[in-house]
Design a protein that fits this description.
The complex is a heterodimer of chains A (506) and B (368).
Chain A: E1 3-14, E2 17-28, E3 32-37, H1 43-50, E4 58-63, E5 66-68, H2 73-78, E6 81-84, H3 96-101, H4 116-129, H5 144-157, E7 162-166, H6 174-189, E8 193-198, H7 201-207, E9 210-215, E10 218-224, H8 230-238, E11 256-266, E12 272-282, E13 286-290, H9 297-305, E14 312-317, E15 320-321, H10 327-332, E16 335-338, H11 342-346, H12 353-357, E17 368-369, E18 372-373, H13 375-388, H14 406-419, E19 424-428, H15 436-451, E20 455-459, H16 463-469, E21 472-477, E22 480-486, H17 492-499
Parallel strand pairs in A: 3-8, 3-9, 6-7, 7-8, 13-20, 13-21, 16-19, 19-20
Antiparallel strand pairs in A: 1-2, 1-4, 4-5, 9-10, 11-12, 11-14, 14-15, 17-18, 21-22
Helix pairs in contact in A: 14-15
Chain B: H1 2-5, H2 7-29, H3 35-46, E1 48-49, E2 53-54, H4 57-81, H5 89-106, H6 113-140, H7 144-164, E3 173-176, H8 186-191, H9 200-217, H10 219-229, H11 231-237, H12 241-268, E4 270-272, H13 280-290, H14 295-317, H15 322-337, H16 339-367
The chains are: A alpha/beta (506), B mainly alpha (368).
């Protein structure tokens, strides 16, 4: 059997933690090999070792049957290993061609860059793999899906035979995901080897041949994808049975809690990002806002929470006009808000966990008395939240938030916001980057809030999340709502069309 | 593991040692006696000099020199904890001195109320001088560094003008501040062999305790720390960052003004016309930096920089130019400023330590 990559008995230790413990994976030439695991399972470390960014403490690597020592990403490149990063590394104001040749330009005899050969090669590559892009378009003018193709072309242009895809579908629409799957199949057909890092079981099932499941730094199993169900793979990854179904009882929505009336908001570049948008969220319902990142969702939420001022239009909480209220006053009027960016907004990373629990309420009873913090009450409250929401950390409530895992950081925010028992809960991207166990838990808590009769506005770029949690779904495209559907009566395909700005018949 | 736990203390200590070593090298290059540096530091700190015994005047002067440095260090540190760089502390220091000087000379009152009031008024002068950059930052997003530097010069020249027009002033100084309104103490002076040691140290202790208390224990300090660590996060939490910005730079100004008042009321007991800035405010930046912006650290760093200043004079008498002492203090600042490089080296060392431990255990395992 021919293996493109063999990583044998790889062990990588960091102070206090073993990131990879005797991990062995063997990737067959011309196959798509998925790497599945929760956050912190050791996927990234393993790939960083393959890419030359870390040295393993033990173990050997073979590429195409030859033993190699990869101590530098350049060595990996020379061996034909290329990585398509989750966050694209492209220069926005350069053209597609310029981005692809960047770093390995052909020079003319005058020392200037020769684009002629490059264009030809890019065209050939595009034709043979079905990767069609306009070579003269600027990156900033093309869609995210196209940008990803440029990333792939960049690797192929450098003659990479082994391609690592790191969570490639996180930023794509359902249609773009389908196209990417097709591209990956084409690549396989042409003899390329692909390692796919993902936590989306559906994609693995769709495209991969073999799947290696990692848990806590160890290989749990390497399975044949065709012979294994999604459920079995999920169980291997988490180590227990996972329940994807969210238990939602039938509820009749009550009175309107949040009303947005002809709202327009500019983004930080001064362009209109939300255009004349109106919507309502009622008691006991989850309104999901679907859409691809960058279509005005962030600006809409900033305006709702008071972080930025709208250009025109009004916002009402419980029939009260809060358009000109400060952030603080909106919290006092019943808002709870789980922000999109937990490091920029949600947490003060240099604070202890217990301090982060009280960032909204630090200046009044019971946490402060006449301006002096009451440590006993703060500790008591922090211990209660930590236990109730199962937030795990090294030194309990005294842990520096920065040192906690992403999932537990997010749990801490969810704990804080849900415990405020506000009747409006704004939740943005609540499970980004989290593992299955944490996602399951957070979803349940959000639905619990709805079941208690609270109004929930859920903004997410993950369509699966929107579909499984929402009662109604509003699709945002280019700052406008292109359609509002009942979750029961719609599907991924229809929403995908709306997300891309298309129209569907009602 | 061991290293990262003590990193906070280890980094300034390494910086200090590296600075002193660099100073030694320079003295050696100049062909002078390296040992003199240590005898000067020892004498400055304790008053002990081989051959001539103990002279408590030196530790007395060390405290006198350190007090304003600690206060300006607290001033800079306070602003820094709230995410601001109060380079205007120098001007606030000057205005604080001017305010307390005017009050002490024009409104003599019985002790101790008079002197306490004069100190507070000095602090208020500094706070008012800091209000402007704070307001401009919040309202128009103008950097407090630019306005601070400009106001430093405004403070210097207007202070000189106002000192000269006080009744009885000469071209260089005012009349003596009456005894009931100044901090000088014959008692403190007599127990330290006629040093200028004065009651100001009580003010410094109160200020350092208040600094720690406000930042660590009050809800106001909580909001300041939140803003300082993560401005956007504080805004999300509903903390009014504008308000806390102005108040915190004013508290910083109060501390700097207090330092100015201390020098006028205690060290000299008269107001002076300054030919140039005395750099107390700027030295405060170094003190805050080395002290890691926490109260105890700033007190210790203030004493260290005071010691280097005192040592300058002693070095001169043994034929080593005062610039050497300045090189030592600048190198310490330099090494603290590149603390990430030190941290990087420590991490490397740490990795090596744990790495070698791993290989050792492995070898044992293999043998067994």
């Amino acid at each position: 059997m021919d293996y493109a990559i063999e990583m044998l008995h790889i062990t990588k230790k960091f102070p206090g933690i073993i990131a990879n413990d005797d991990v062995t994976i063997q990737v067959k030439k011309g196959s798509i090999h998925a790497l599945l695991g929760e956050n912190g399972a050791g996927k990234s470390t393993l790939m960083s070792i393959l890419f030359g960014m870390y040295q393993p403490n033990e173990g050997e690597i073979f590429v195409n049957g030859e033993k190699v020592i990869i101590d530098d990403p350049n060595v990996a490149n020379r061996l034909g290993i290329g990585m398509v990063h989750q966050h694209f590394k492209l220069v926005d104001i350069f053209t597609v061609t310029e981005n692809i040749v960047l770093g390995c330009e052909d020079k003319t005899k005058y020392g200037t860059i020769s684009y002629r050969n490059a264009s030809k090669k890019i065209k050939e590559l595009g034709d043979s793999y079905g990767l069609h892009v306009d070579p003269d378009a600027k990156i900033e003018d093309i869609s995210v899906g196209m940008q990803q193709r440029v990333e792939i072309l960049k690797m192929l242009y450098r003659d990479a035979d082994i391609l690592i895809f790191d969570e490639p579908t996180a930023v794509l629409t359902p249609q773009e995901i389908d196209e990417l799957m097709l591209i990956m199949e084409n690549l396989r057909k042409e003899g390329k080897t692909i390692i796919l890092i993902t936590h989306k079981l559906k994609e693995i099932k769709h495209v991969a041949d073999v799947c290696t499941v990692l848990r806590k730094g160890r290989v749990v199993a390497t399975v044949d994808v065709k012979a294994t169900s999604e459920h079995e793979m999920a169980k291997l990854m988490v180590g227990r049975d996972v329940d994807f179904k969210v238990d939602k009882k039938e509820l009749t929505p009550g009175k309107t809690v949040l009303k947005v009336d002809h709202l327009s908001v500019k983004n930080n570049r001064g362009l209109m990002a939300v255009k004349d948008l109106s919507l309502e969220v009622k008691e006991g319902e989850i309104l999901g806002i679907a859409g691809i990142d960058g279509n005005g969702q962030t600006e809409l939420v900033y305006a709702l929470s008071g972080l930025s001022k709208p250009e025109s239009g009004s916002i009402y909480f419980n029939d009260q006009d809060v358009t000109h209220y400060s952030v603080k006053k909106r919290y006092d009027n019943g808002m709870a808000y789980v922000p999109e960016d937990r490091h920029k907004h949600g947490l003060i990373l240099d604070f202890k966990l217990k301090e982060n629990y009280i960032v909204h309420d630090y200046n009044h009873e019971p946490f402060a008395h006449r301006g002096i913090l009451n440590q006993t009450e703060i500790d008591k409250y922090a211990v209660r939240l930590t236990e109730e929401f199962d937030v795990r950390s090294g030194q309990g409530i005294e842990t520096l938030t920065r040192s906690m895992s992403g999932g537990n950081q997010q749990k801490a925010i969810i704990a804080r916001e849900i415990d405020r028992s506000s009747n409006l809960l704004i939740v943005v991207q609540p499970t980004r980057g989290l593992d299955v166990g944490a996602i399951e838990y957070i979803h349940r808590r959000i639905v619990d809030e709805r079941n208690k009769g609270r109004a929930v506005l859920l903004v997410s770029f993950e369509l699966d999340e929107i579909l499984s949690l929402s009662d109604r779904i509003a699709v945002m495209f280019s700052g406008e709502i292109t359609g509002i559907k009942n979750a029961k009566d719609t599907n991924e395909h229809e929403l995908g069309i709306l997300m891309a700005g298309g129209h569907v018949e009602d | 593991m061991f290293i990262s736990k003590y990193e906070k203390i280890l980094i300034p200590v390494i910086a200090i040692i590296a600075g002193i070593i660099l100073g030694m090298i320079i003295i050696a290059i100049c062909g002078l006696n390296v040992g003199n540096l240590f005898t000067a530091l020892l004498q400055g700190a304790t008053g002990i000099k081989a051959g001539s015994g103990l002279n408590l005047r030196y530790p007395g002067e060390l405290i006198v020199t350190s007090m304003p440095l600690i206060l300006t260090g607290l001033a800079i540190g306070f602003a820094y904890r709230c995410g601001m760089f109060n380079i205007g502390a120098e001007g606030q220091f000057i205005i604080g001195g001017l305010f307390s000087c005017y009050f002490a000379i024009l409104c003599p009152m019985p002790s101790p109320f008079g002197v306490i009031l004069a100190l507070i008024i000095g602090g208020i002068g500094g706070a008012l001088w800091a209000f402007l950059p704070g307001l401009l930052k919040v309202k128009f997003n103008i950097s407090e560094v630019v306005t601070g530097i400009m106001l430093n010069y405004t403070a210097l020249y207007s202070s000189n003008y106002f000192i000269k027009i006080l009744p009885g002033s000469s071209a260089t100084r005012t009349v003596d501040i009456p005894d009931s309104m100044n901090l000088t103490s014959d008692f403190l002076s007599s127990i330290t062999n006629n040093s200028r040691l004065h009651w100001g140290f009580i003010v410094v202790i109160i200020a350092a305790v208040a600094y720690w208390f406000i930042i660590e224990k009050t809800s106001f300090g909580f909001s300041l720390r939140a803003t300082g660590f993560n401005k956007e996060g504080a805004r999300y939490a509903g903390i009014k960052d504008g308000q806390s910005t102005v108040i915190s730079i004013m508290i910083s100004g109060f501390l700097a003004g207090l330092a100015g008042a201390l020098v006028v009321l205690g060290t000299f007991a008269y107001g002076r016309v300054l030919s140039a800035m005395e750099n107390y405010g700027f030295d405060g930046i170094a003190v805050a930096l080395v002290g890691g912006c926490n109260a105890i650290g700033i007190v210790l760093a203030g004493i260290l920089f005071g010691l280097l200043k005192v040592a300058e004079t002693i070095l001169q008498t043994s034929g080593i130019p005062r610039e050497i002492a300045q090189i030592v203090s600048s190198s310490i600042i330099f090494f603290v400023a590149i603390q990430y490089a030190i941290k990087f080296l420590l991490d490397k060392l740490n990795n090596k330590l744990s790495g070698s431990k791993n290989t050792k255990t492995k070898k044992k395992g293999e043998a067994a």
